[in-house]
Structures are given as C-alpha cells and as structure tokens.
Amino acid sequence: MHVSWLMFAKTIAFVFSLALPMLLVRRLDQAQFGVYKQLFLVIGTSVTVLPLGFAMSAYYFLPREPDRQPETVLNILIYSIAVGSLACGAFLLWPVLLGIIFHQPGLTGYAHLIGVVILLWIVSQALEIIPIAHGEMKLASALIMGVQLTRTAIYLTAVIVFGSVKALIWAAVVQGVLQTAVLWWYLQSRFGGFWQRLDWSLMRSQLSYAVPLGLAGILYTVQTDLHSYFVSNRLGAVAYAIYGVGIVQLPLMTMLQEATNAVVISRVSALQQQNDTREIVQLMARAMRKLAAVYFPVYALLVVVAHDFIGFFFTKRYLASVPVFLINLTLLLLGILLMDPLFRTYVEQRFFLIRLRVALCALLTAGLWFGTTRFGLVGAISAVVLVGVTERTVMAIRFGRILGVTRKDLVLLKDIGKLAIAAAAAGLVAEGVRLLLRGTKPLIVLMVCGVVFSLVYLCAIWLARILTPEEKELVRRRIAVLLGQT
Question: How far apart are CA 337 and CA 351, in angstroms?
Fold first, then answer.
C-alpha cells in the first residue's frame, strides 16, 4: 500500500513534468533548449552529488533513534545549508566555472542565479525524504505531487510569459524558496523546537553512515550524468538538445523505483537486524516482480511507438533523437534490479560499491571518449548502457552470494519471465497495428497502439495466471468501482 501511494504520487509528478519539455521545445529554438538543459544539468548534478546523500540518513536514523528524531532532522538541515552555501559561494566568486564546464563562455552570465538555485534546492530536497522516513506516506505523496505541480506551473508561466532561459532560472529560484518554506513548516509541525536539539555525536554517526554511501553516490551520478557533460562539451548545445530529448524517459524509469526503494529500504533494514536473509530474498523478488509488471510493458510499447512518441511530444525537429531514445530504453529493463536497499542495509558493502564504481567510471570515461568520437550521440548512449549492464550484473552476483541465493531461488522469478513474454507478445501485436496505421498522425498511432497493447498485455498476464488471488480480487473491485457497482 505504501508503494502504491508513492507510485501514484510519482506518476502524477511525471505527467506534470512531461508537460514542461513539450512546451519548451516549441517555445525555444534548439540552441536555447540546449542551454536550458545544460544549466539544469548542472543544478541536478550539484543537488545530487554535493550533499553526499546526507539527507538519506533519515531512512536509517529516524526509525532506529526515535528519541533523537529532532536532532536527526536538525543535523540534516545544518549540513544541507553548509554544503549549499559552499556551492553557491563557488558560483558567485568564480562564475567562469559554468563556461568552463560546457566550453561555452556565454553561460557565465547565468552563474550567480545557478548558485542560488543550488543552495535552495539542496536545503529543500529533504522535503521528499523526511516524511517518508517518518512513516507519513500519504503526506509524502501529497508533497511530491504538490512540489511537481507548483514547479511545472511556475516554469510554464515563466516560459509562456517571458519565453527565455533566464526566466526559467528565476522560476527555479521561486520554486526553491517555496519548497524551503514548506520544509520548515513540516519540521516545525512534526519536530517542534528541533533547532534547539543539536547533537554532534549523532552528527558524526550520520556522517559515518552517509559519507561512504555518498561517495558511491557521486560515482553513480558520474555514471548517469557524465555522458551528458561529454556530449554537451564536445558536440555543443544543439547536439545536447537532441541528446536530451533522447533520454527524456528517465523520470519514467525512476518513478516507481524511487517509490519502491523508499519503502523497501526500511523493511530490508529491519529484516537484516533479525538476520532473516531468506525473507530479504523473497522481499526483493516480490519488488522485482512489481517493477517488471510496469517496466517490461512500458519498454515494449515505447520501442514500438518510439518514432511517433518523439514526433508528437517533441515535434519532428527532434526525430534525430529516436536512435538515442531506443538504446536508452534498455535502462528500463535494468531498473527491476533494486540494489540501493541492500547497500544501505549492508553498510559493510559500501566500500566494495565505491571500488566497483571507480572502476566503472574509468570504463565509462574511456567508452564515452571512443564512442562519442567514432559514433557521436549513439556512441555516447551505448557506452552508458553497457556500463549499466556491467554494474547491475556484478552487484547482483555480489548480493546473491551474501544472501545465499541458489539456483532453487530461480522459481521466485518465474512471474518475471511470464511478464516478459506477455510484454513481448503485446508489443508484436502493437507493431502490426502500427504498420497498418502507417502515415496516420502520431497522436492517433499512440492512442490506438496504446489501447491495443494494454488489452493484449492484460489478457496475457491473466491467461498466464500471473496475478495472485488477492490481486485478482483487487482488479475486480476496481472494475466494479469504475462501472459504478457496489
């Protein structure tokens, strides 16, 4: 149920977020859109990397230290303000950094505003973490939807009224102020007087927990963002605009995974304390099954309608993004392998994770250098996917040994195999329909193929007896509600 609430919230958030680039590609030319993507790439990377995942310590300490919850959240706030202020100061004092990163001196004029945005967003990012760690899933879901709704509304207003990149940066400042205010309200309402409860010993404990994982997180962000910097720096803003559209579905990939991670982390942590590795294996298999039920059909459908999807949402000017889009979709399949809950619970494995990601970053850098030089945008995304496959394979083998997984446990994945077959079958039928609709407007193709795919997929998983009795009953109840029956 907890995952369902977060899944719903992130689904709504994704719908809101999809509207923004649709308008931007129509209001900005490719060079401006590329600059917008570059600036927000810097913001996103900074907000992810610089705090070292310190706010994530709430998942570990809030449930385990109930008597020191005010101290826990105060430490998160202090740390976030300190790190955000350092980042902001760097861009204020050395605005040339922005031009150097992308090999474009013209970006220097945005540096001061970018620094302010990074400060506000680092401080306020705990707004989506602490409520989940505190067990308030409904409120967390409402906050996630509210943040995305207000963000999209503010950005859309900025681009419609002013139609400039600078207006979008100012919109990000306004959003950051709003999120920070809401965060302060939440902390005050749940942990009244928390600012009076400073605990340096707890701060040290949180740092010892977060920093190694944060270093691993930096390396992971290098893996996920380095290709964007490579393309932008070497090929320019216009090429990066095309590339950015090609990887646009990434929020869709992370949507369910983030919600599942948030819930599974605390459950795995409790099971590990009880030394119940068998239940951890079964829990992870159930989580993979739920992710596969969404990721597999999304992957299959998007492969079929990729050309129409890009053409409809981002206009024909961005059809050159389709090859990048298709290769990048492979990451959806990797998304069913949840590793973050295991690394955050088995903290002794964090140093293995760091060593692995150091090696993978070196491999990715070499792959990007060669791939971008020889094959351009396709080479860059191919290097990313190959490194992603390598990482998930190594980590799955590592934790399989730690948890005592054997060949007998493959039976736990039988439904995942059935889901893959069901998605493939639905994809083949949808491809046949798409061929019949050749020459039809993209919106019609998307709607018809989507309906046909969904019907075939749902029938396939029903006939394959993938649904449990409880899930079948839930489906019956939902259908009855839709039909107005009691």
Answer: 20
What Å distances lie between residue 398 and 104, 182, 352, CA to CA?
42, 41, 10
Contacts within 8 Å (CB) and 24+ apart, 373-379: 376/235, 376/239, 377/231, 377/235, 377/239, 377/242, 377/243, 377/246, 377/323, 377/324, 378/323, 378/324, 378/327
Q: What is the C-alpha to C-alpha distance for residues 219 and 215, in angstroms, rounded to an integer?
A: 6
For 41-80, what is each residue's pLDDT tens digit?
999 889 988 888 888 888 778 877 778 888 888 988 999 9
The structure tokens listed for 280 are 């951890």
Cβ neighbours for 1, distance < 8 A, ≥ 6 positions apart:
137
Q: What's the pLDDT tens digit per position in 434-482?
A: 999 988 999 999 999 999 999 999 999 988 888 877 777 776 776 666 5
Residue 147 near residue 14 (C-beta atoms within 8 A): no
Phi-psi group of 28: left, alpha or beta (phi > 0 → left; psi -120 to 50 → alpha; rest → beta): beta
CA angle 451, 250, 139 (to 5 degrees): 85
Instruction: Check residues 272 and 182 and name the one with the higher pLDDT.
Output: 182
Secondary structure tally for the chain: helices H, strands E: 20, 0
Mean pLDDT, all residues of the chain: 85
Residues sharing a CB contact under 8 Å with residue 62, sequence separation 6 or more, in sequence order: 69, 72, 73, 130, 133, 134
343 pLDDT band, cuts 50/70/90, is confident
pLDDT by residue (tens digit) across 120-149? 999 998 888 888 877 777 777 777 777 877
Q: Which two tokens stand for residue 180?
A: 């920070």
Q: In this structure, what token pair is assigned to residue 338? A: 């949840």
pTM attached to this predicted model: 0.77
Residue bearing tokens 């393309």: 231
Residue among 395, 405, 412, 399 at smallest CA distance from 292: 412
In whole angstroms, what is the distance from residue 338 CA to residue 356 CA?
16
Q: How far is CA 451 from the centre of its chain?
A: 26
Other CB atoms within 10 A of residue 109 CB: 12
Token pair recorded at residue 281: 């294996």
Burial class (CB in 10 A: 0-12, 13-18, 19+), 267: middle
Q: Rounded to 5 degrees, what angle do the CA atoms 445, 451, 452 make? A: 90
**Of residues 469 and 390, which shows the higher confidence score?**
390
The rounded Cα 248 to chain-centroid distance in angstroms is 11
- Three-class DSSP category at 29: coil
> Among candidates 283, 287, 252, 265, which has minimal Cα distance to 56?
265
- The answer to whether residue 1 scores a pLDDT higher than 50 is no
Measured from the Cβ of residue 6, the count of other Cβ atoms closer than 10 Å reads: 24
> What are the distances in angstroms from CA 146 to CA 8, 111, 141?
13, 28, 8
